[in-house]
Amino acid sequence: MLEDTRRRILEYNNGKSALERGREIKKIFPLLAEDIIRMADQAMEGMLVLPGTGPDLFFVGNPPLWQSNPCGDNEYTYFLNRMFHVKTLSEAYSLTGNLKYAEKAISEMRNWIETVHCPGILDESGAYDLQAFDCCSPWRALEVGIRGYRTWPIIIELLADTPSYTEDFHSLVVRSCREHCRILSEISPKLWPDADHNHYIMENLGLLSLTLLFPEIDSEGNMRKQAEDELSRCIENQSTADGGQIEGCPSYHNGSVYWFSLRNSISRKYGIPVPDEYTDRLKRMFVHSIHATRPSGGNFPWGDSHTAEKETMSLAAIACYMATGEREYLQSAAYFSPARIIEKDMRDNLWRFTDLEKLRIDYEYAAENPLKPELPCVEWDKELKQAFIRTGWEKDAAAVMTACRTPIKNNHAHMDPGGFDFMAYGEPLVSDPGIYTYKDSIDRYHFKSTGWHNCAMINHKDAWQYIASWKYGKQKPGDIIAVQDDDSCMTVISEHMNYEPVRMRRMLSLIDRRMLLVIDAASGMADGDTMQSTFHINSPQIRMVGMNCIASYSPGKPNVLIASSGDCAGTEIISGKISTDNDVWHDSMIVRFNTGKAGHGYTVHAALLVPFKSGEDIVSPIPLRLDAEESSISASFCFNGRSYAVVHRDLKTTVEIKEV
To answer: What DSSP string describes 387-404?
Structure first.
């Protein structure tokens, strides 16, 4: 049986052994090879960086204590048991030929198989025990799928011809892979009957990968067909007409592009066709990846999304390049992402590329010829209830992302209906706070809370109840109700009922290709109700500029002035945090303007956000006048020798600009 596996591995890798593939990678990408070897040396000592450990190396045991959770973070258990570090050890063997890496990898894989036993698939009544595979466990179905597509196939391919990979060990591996496939074939479809979650993509990739690597597990091909059919159903059910992934988080969108693309690259390796409609949808998803990218690169960090280091458009581009071989994807990545990020995304997938010389040529071309998008500057994904507006595709453009998707799709969403993220001159200025952690804690609450987002609130309350990290109370309807794009301005209007009977409406207008006007209007308020308009400023310091203006203070960086239509009485200033990656944050400031109820249960607040380049002084306040009725709202101000009159009426925005 082992000899058959070795023969198939050689055949499907164009006759190249693990050491031949490693030598080729090391020659073409020497720095990436060094990086892999460095991480493998750390793994040899049991030193890893995992969720909950912070950014520093942490001793996980030698061999790892697979079922221990010293950090109290479920993600620690999940990531350790995905066995990424064992894959890294296997790659280090391929790169160096040093058997110590292979022996260590096989030793840890054997230890895992022999000590981390699969739960019974049926409960005492004979029914499927779904909870056993949907809880914090090394055998959660997602971890089963990730091992099945992301790590174990590459580990086996690279180590199968080493002395430590014996017939006895191979029998253990195949037996465990049978257990993996049974879970993915029988349990996963019951966990995700609607094929509407990113977990199910990875679980079917695991089933596809393992049945192709070990056809003896699936002698009639039923499980492989199931995986292919369900991947087609996943992309149909999870991608909107405009190309967004239904969960609405840019990180998970880019991750989904990557996962969907692996079907193409894995299928090509084994000579299996993929339906054209599937690949067409994948390409539409990449266009959404571009819209969800900030002008200077990295994600708009909506929901549980990273900003710059993980699951950005760079990963989606690498994925689509693997799926299609079209170098334009690499050129798009080169426009938005530094080489460090692109190569990090390549590093994890180097052994998936069957033509490394083509990759080298295409990547060098892309680095010299980055591709600036030729796409509209306004994108409204109506199903996701998201909109992206920008003044252009230059890296210093002003850009806004906003969304009002309530009820939410799943608990990756944050409690931020009508919130936004605003950047200009290459810097996030008034920012979504990001993700920080999945761990159920006060930090998780803060980063998801309405009060830490650029939202309007009633009576300082969250838009809906936070129960736990993955559990909310009910939400009321909300949506983006109008998007306008013309010469005078770009406007997005959202509305929601999460403070029922209060109706919250927000108008975001990008004016004169620079300034963002934010108008919050609440109707149906009761006596004693107040409205708060919150702005999360990406700066550890702020200062007052006149009576009604607050400005960020970040020397050597772009800054933003926020002018309020109120008198700033009762304004709150709160210390905050903004996260760019798991367990990583920096200090920020939250400014909250309070507005009392006006006549007839109606109140309005306006704020003008004016960005300034690095080195530009913010010395003068900008008086902002607001006149409001329920049928019409007018804001006026002067800036840089011009007067502006902005009127919102009947979901239409008009702007009059005059020289003064």
So the answer is: EEEES-SSTT--EEEEE-
